[in-house]
Amino acid sequence: MISIEGLKVEFGVKPLFRDVSFVVNDRDRIALVGKNGAGKSTLLKILCGLQKPTKGNVAVPNDTTIGYLPQVMKLQDDTTVKEETRKAFADNTKLQSRLERMQQEMADRTDYESDSYAQLVEKFTQEHERYMMMGGENYEAEIERTLIGLGFERTDFDRPTNEFSGGWRMRIELAKILLRRPDVLLLDEPTNHLDIESIQWLEQFLAQSAKAVVLVSHDRAFINNVTNRTLEITCGGVEDYRVSYDQYVVLRKERREQQLRAYENQQKEIADIKAFIDRFRYQATKAVQVQQRIKQLEKIVPIEVDEVDNKVMHLKFPPCLRAGDYPVICDEVRKDYGSHTVFDHVTFTIKRGEKVAFVGKNGEGKSTLVKCIMGEIPFAGCLKIGHNVQIGYFAQNQAQLLEEDITIYDTIDRVATGDMRLKINDMLGAFMFGGETSEKKVKVLSGGERSRLAMIKLLLEPVNLLILDEPTNHLDMPSKDVLKEAIKAFDGTAIIVSHDREFLDGLVDKVYEFGGGKVREHLGGIYDYLHAHRAENIDAALSLVSQKTDTTAAQPTVGSASTATESAGKQNYAEHKEQQKKIRKAEKAVKDCEGRIAKLESRKAEIDALLCNPENASNMDLISEYTALMRQLDKENEDWFAFSEALEAVQKQ
To answer: Which residue ranges are recorded for the region named Disordered (predicted)?
Structure first.
């Protein structure tokens, strides 16, 4: 369907990738993988014709249609959900209008025997057959099936699109692309704004209805369920693995190990040949053998080992002023959009230093309550922000708010003040924007890179209340881990809106669940919350909550939780705290042991250097110290193994 040959893309001195060649075939389900900034989104733009490569060819047959869902897109706000989705069938509606005009013309005319009338009838017949082949009027039912599959209710169809959050509007765009039934689907992070039911529906749709798919996603389960081929963009090239993602991970590891073994064997062979040449170069009796070895050395083709990109961003929130004891207090807060009540009777208190999670399906009011806290929208009830609270806000659409026509450096230079202006290059380097990369324009950055750039802007102002709305949407696994550790080390209070249970695990100590117009408080971490619902993931837990419509009214809201639920929550919380205490104790034992080993190794190196000196060869004090040190080092190494095994056992409990 699409043929790529000798592709090269340059944004600076160093190519993004070069000499890339592959073919997208019918029924291919391709996962495009690589670190943030490797060029995944760029490659998708090139495949759909939105961007031109520096060099190479992309061949797309004339009759091949392509549907492209970008990470960031400009959305329309002037229609209803169904009217906007109906735009996917613009060709159908135009053809339908043309048929109606021809039908009216045939009814008005009376020259039935004329050639022009016969031509009109023939043209109408042809166009009508084409219209029926395109689905006729069945597209209305198809629109409804797709919207419901992506999580919309029938009551949403006639609601204006501007009443929906960004996540729901992205679902509308996805629905329009799927309804066009293109030959090749290019999807850039399609699951970022979907809940579990919608993801499962999309998996089924792609498996049954799509012709060819190329997708970028950080959702490992989604990739495994959909794809049968993996293209890895790594260190300027593309490796093609015709297997699913899990199999690719195994094959990639095996491939690198084989390369390393072959490389080591070749290096040994080269060293042996060079040693022979150096040893016998000037011996006349070995001249023939030396020349043979020289020719053999020249014929050796060096084995290349895949580079492993180990760059990670370094993130640390700056020190902040001490806020009041209660940064956020909600009392009977309510928010309505016209006749639609998003939530009401919201009552809770967030204490200083707490890390809390907001969880709930899209449209249940998580981002809306965040905007109320930020003072961006009006609401009913009482919402107090504590004394001396300084808020740092990372919005879902933060990447879209960046100016696209300026460079990375200028983006930060425009907001940095005082001493921070002297540290811009250091900060950019810590976020993997060092060197010439800082001169890239924002418009060429990937979603992950834009998220990192937006995070730098957040760090420029010391804050004591962090509000992060889906901060991991465009981040790869290593970057998620770095962000998580930075939030854990943050001195202030944090509110995190996220569906990512692995990210929230060990990070939050309280969960606020949004659903059915209510907000419920759950003490303990995210796994305590899941355990209380007997669910494996957040979306499954939220589905169980939405199914209990009959008992929703009877369930207590925040501030009036039942004694039994609160007791169970406290018990789970206590167990979680005790578990964390054991883990910290085991980690400290390992770390202390490693410190002692490092000191002993350092002293061993010093004694080794002294004993290499002829003057100290018979120094009995040094020899005795060395013997005792080696015994101590052996004992510490045994202790380290024991402590490590104990830590592993505690972590598995």
So the answer is: 552-578
